[in-house]
Amino acid sequence: MPIYLLDVIALSCFIICWAGYTGFARKKAKTTNCIARCLHQHRVHWMYEVIGRDIRVGEAALLANLERNISFFASSALLILAGVLTLFAQVEQLESVIGSIPFTDAPNHAMVQLKLSLLALIFVMAFLHFTWSLRQYGFVNIMIGACPFDDSGENENLNKYAEQMATVQDQAAHAFNYGLRAFYFSIAALCWFFHPLIFIFASLFVVYTLFNREFRSKAVKAITIGQQCLEQEFALKHSKNTNNAKADISVTNK
Questions:
Q1: In this structure, are 232 and 127 located in the same domain?
Q2: Within this chain, do residues 93 and 150 fall inside the same structural domain, yes or no?
């Protein structure tokens, strides 16, 4: 199998972009407001509210909607994977199609198989992330079903339980996010069939797109402002409950 230096560089750039952005986003989310960080705070507030609701039909509907979206992507990943595996039996026809595209290099049989293998690996990873996300949302359903009812909001033990429910849900969302990133980078990998330089450019463009959407989009700004509003409401509610408890104690003492 001949080794092409530009292809090696392009593949290395792709791996560095994917792994590097994943590590960068995980580290930056700990100190910077972004979709992952702010939505986790929303999940914490959501689970606090769950404790104070005796009937939780709304939560079941919301979680079912999230699971339905993930199921769609998991099914899509399987269908795409089946299509990619089918192409292994049609490599000669694929080479003729690639060769007919203007400004593309002459296809090499071994390199085409390598590119198809990369696509197959990406969608296998995406499917595994989506199914793990589905399982964790199922865990959240069970935890909500087991959660006792407390309308006071002052039970510290249940508040810790709510935070653990939010953590499990956050991990499910991270798995879903990793699966979506695999879909994004699969588009970059598809560009490798045309030219390694296009592959490099597409990898960098995917990183740029993900960064803008997760850290600089208008949605992030709106979610951040919403988080601040929820924190103010939670602090106000907590102070009211504390004042009411003190008033009850004073009346009892009298």
A1: no
A2: yes
Q: Are residues 135 and 95 in the same domain?
A: yes
Report yes or no on 163 lying in a domain: yes
Instruction: Please report where in the chains the tokens 């690639």 appear, as a residue.
Output: 98
Q: Cα angle vertex 165, ends 125, 70, to 5°?
A: 35
Q: Are 157 and 80 in contact (CB under 8 A)?
A: no
Domain count across the chain? 2
- Integer Cα distance of 98 and 106 in angstroms: 8
How far is 72 from 168, CA to CA, in rounded Å? Answer: 21
**Cα–Cα distance between 254 and 221 in angstroms, integer?**
50
Tokens coding 209 = 């797109």
Residue 17, classed as helix, strand or coil, is: helix
User: The pTM is what?
Assistant: 0.86
Please report how many Cα atoms fall inside a 13 Å half-sphere around the Cα of residue 117, on the Cβ side: 7
The DSSP code sequence of 4-35 is: -HHHHHHHHHHHHHHHHHHHHHHHHTTTS--H
Do 188 and 233 reside in the same domain of the chain? no
Residue-wise pLDDT for 22-81, tens only, equals 999 999 998 888 999 999 999 999 999 899 888 888 888 999 999 999 999 999 999 999
Instruction: Answer whether 143's CB lies under 8 Å from 163's CB.
Output: no
The 10s digit of each residue's pLDDT in 202-224 is: 999 999 999 999 999 999 999 99
